[in-house]
Amino acid sequence: MNKKFVGAVALSLFFQVSAFAQFGGFGGPQGGGSVPDADKTADVNYVGDGKTYHTLDIYIPKQAKESYPVVIHTYGSAWSSNNMKGSADLSTICAAYAKAGYAVVTPNHRSASDAKYPAQLHDIKAVVRFVRGNAAKYKFDTNFVAVSGFSSGGHLSSLTATTCGLKEGKSGSVTVDLVGDLGEFTSFSSCVDGAVLWSPPTDIYTMNPISMGGSGTMEGAFIGVEREGNKDKWMVASSPYYASDDDPPVIMFHGTSDNIVNIEQSQELYDSLKKHNVVTEFVKVSGGSHGGNVMNSSENLSKAVAFLDKAREAKAAAATVAPPATGDSTTTPPATGDSTTTPPATGDSTTTPPTTTPPATGDSTTTPPTTTPPATGDSTVTAPPATGDSAAALPAMRSVVSGPTTYKVFSLDGTLVMKSSTLNLSRLNPGVYYVVATTREGARRTFRIAKP
């Protein structure tokens, strides 16, 4: 066969795959552009290794403030590009975030050619830690750090949101590290406070495979093996598998005419999150394809911003510290769940029970953490001592909480000691506890009880 012909075919296939991944396929038509309402700091290395694939750009809103909540937005590329931060929906999604007052961070990450999964997840989590570690330098308000992403960037963002608190992911005989040790800020939390997912693959084991022109699939290149006979290796890279009660709020946008990533991918994650009472929304965009103007309409961009605003406001409201009871300590204990009001517990003193959960500072192994210490830089909170409590509060609690409910039980020093869909006092040692009951609809009630 003519060598020139072979070379031409190979070159043609290369450009087809490259164009597919970056512009018209799994990465979608993201375009370049700019973020007009923000000042840009380019090419910051978030690991400190001098690698292009470990750089990010920062966009700070021009509206002067002391600090800015943060959205980390990751480009789509079928995990095939390590340098597309300059095409990460800048003039659409990122511009909308910045206009709404969010600092926007657009990172590069390693491609499937550079390293296999979970390297890309390690990269994004290192970005989250970098943001927390550089709060003062870049005026980041780390009380609210969210992730956002399109296509494969949405996949990485969905994993970042659902694996908070997990050091390892396991399926069958396969175990993967979900955190990594990149960068100098490994003592900071890699958890996030919200996620916006645009046309995301979520369960790559169940999605329609994306062919690489006869040489395997994009997913297989990302994982390192093809799907046949390797279910466990693909499962540990799928976010519905990790959904849990303490996941942050998540909104998904997916086009009904998306022929690259089937819409069932968002549906699957949405269903998994709902089963765990996570605050989540699923916007099915009529006629929307994989990226493009229909998906990035002003209506959808406004919905995304409104969702983040609501999540941020709910977290801020939950962080309000109640006044102490007479003779008690000066701080109140953490709790969980999002709501704007928390009535006093039946039979308790005049203090309002706890309304905040301190962010996690590290990642536990295989299961969500049983303790939730505050993140570095956050204040430490301590519960006031209980006085005159009894188990009589329990019947009152059950009378006002109905339907599917998640219970979180805290000791008086603010330590999370139990989290369950049922409240089983037999699992508690004798003592006084705070119980936070959160319904599927997001309503929350807090009670103080005594276990004899």
Keywords:
452 residues, Rossmann fold, globular, 10 helices, 2 domains, single chain, 8-stranded mixed sheet, alpha/beta
Structure notes:
Helix 3 crosses helix 5. The protein is globular, with a radius of gyration of 23 Å. Strand 3, helix 2 and strand 4 form a beta-alpha-beta unit. 50% of the residues are buried. It is α/β, with parallel strands linked by helices. The protein is built from 10 helices and 14 strands. 25% of the residues lie in helices and 20% in strands. The longest helix has 22 residues. The strands form 3 sheets. It has an 8-stranded mixed β-sheet with strand order 1-2-4-3-5-8-9-10, sandwiched between helices. A 4-stranded antiparallel β-sheet has the order 12-11-13-14, covered by helices on one side. The chain has 2 domains: 297 residues, Alpha/Beta hydrolase fold, catalytic domain (Rossmann fold, 3-Layer(aba) Sandwich); 131 residues, no CATH class.
Fold topology:
Blueprint: H1 3-24, E1 38-45, E2 55-61, E3 68-74, H2 90-99, E4 103-107, H3 119-133, H4 135-138, E5 140-150, H5 152-162, E6 168-171, E7 174-177, E8 194-198, H6 218-223, H7 231-235, E9 250-255, H8 264-275, E10 280-285, H9 298-318, H10 393-400, E11 405-411, E12 416-420, E13 431-439, E14 444-451
Parallel strand pairs: 3-4, 3-5, 5-8, 8-9, 9-10
Antiparallel strand pairs: 1-2, 2-4, 6-7, 11-12, 11-13, 13-14
